[in-house]
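Pipeline run #58 for the internal structure catalog. This entry was flagged by the ingest filter as a single-chain record with no existing model, so it goes straight to prediction. Upstream metadata was stripped on purpose; only the residue string is passed forward. Reviewer on rotation: M.T. Logging verbosity set to normal.
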Amino acid sequence: MPDLDPTSRRALLRRGLAGAACATTAGCAALQGRDDASPAEPSPGQTPSVTTTPGNAESRIQTHRTGDLALTVRRADGTPVTDATVSVTMREHAFRFGTGVEARYLVEESSPGDPYRERLAGLFNTGVVEHRNKWRPWENESERELAIRASEWLLERGLDLRGHAAIWQRFDQPVVPEDVVEKVRSDDDDRAAYVSRRTGDHVSEILGHYAGDVASWDVLNEQIHAHHLTDVIDPDASHLRAPEVVQWFERARQADPEASLYLNDYDVLAGEYPDYRDDYAELVRFLQERGAPIDGLGFQAHHDGYEEARSPDGILDTLDRFADLGVAITVTEYDTVGDGWTDERAADHLRTFLRTVFSHPAVEGFVMWGFWDGVHWAERAPLFREDWSAKPALDVYRSLVFEEWWTDETGTTDADGRYRTTAFLGKHDVTVETGGRSRSVRASVTDPVSTTELAVEGPAESP
């Protein structure tokens, strides 16, 4: 296994720490249509029920992840084409199914045709450079070059790019530049001003570099757990109400007006940590009160031990709570590591967890923190072992993402030249065949409420 730079390693997260889909509704809980028979949260010490599908998940998925597509086929003279065969085949999900990406392995240790590259491009539509877009690596020329090359590789293959992470204040990970760490630990009178300038300038620089290319950015990572920098800049403020965080988000918006700006943290969706959930909500409300341009929340989903698996209703309750704050949600850094996990348990958990989060209207994406043991921080990636043999979770992932939630429909036009179907939100190829000729067009179904109308001129008839 190659040497890896530290990433946001869930098994290490508690060590050494010093320190908008539902917004316009009456509340997400009312939207869900829960089955009261869904399992309750386990009591302490009880084995969680992670294999029970939440009630009405399928109906929620149909409501929030599909839309109606109506096709009208007419000849050049405007007359309808009847009994034409219409096929609708999905090309790409609108929902972001992503993975963390090890930049050095991608651009320097793999080559065209390598399983890492092939699986990455074939299984996901979103990529996250795991380590080298963090602050200290970014200021190292060779590390920055790796980050840029990996990002370009992803973009060239049509994957969306998430940025991770502009500011992360861990001192026991190599993510904060050494001069900033030294200044924080000093007694210098100018240390607050120095750290404020360096952090703000970095946010502007890295978001400005990727402006227009990155779909969403983790502007601030793990503020609940590590806040050395804000403690220096805003010594009289709680780390949950530090004014400097508002400035970071404002700098981020100025640097890239189009990217969705995120907080990202752990112990919120996985495991039973109600105090951390309360802290996260307080931080979000503070930023909103101050007018910070926060668009979304990242919920890290490292499950460090089988006991951190939660019931579907528990997951939905947490998603509801934060969606009601008017922000989008992305599940980030998903994996199952630590004691109690077997390959079979991990596969069952992925099935239930992914179905649950996909069914929630506020969730925009689901990101694994790597998919192959060979470059996974704990050698416990969800889908592939180091020898590239498949884990049971691979079949689960493929069967959901590319079969159950994949559009592949065929029918015929009626007397008015009309054909209607339901399609999962995303991009589709639509082919009309009649009289031995065919014509194909591209359709994007993006609205789960309104019908997507598509007019197609029928293929020219054979002479």
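catalog note: The two ends are 63 Å apart (CA to CA).
catalog note: Confidence is low (pLDDT under 50) at residues 1-27, 35-54.
status: ready for reviewer M.T.
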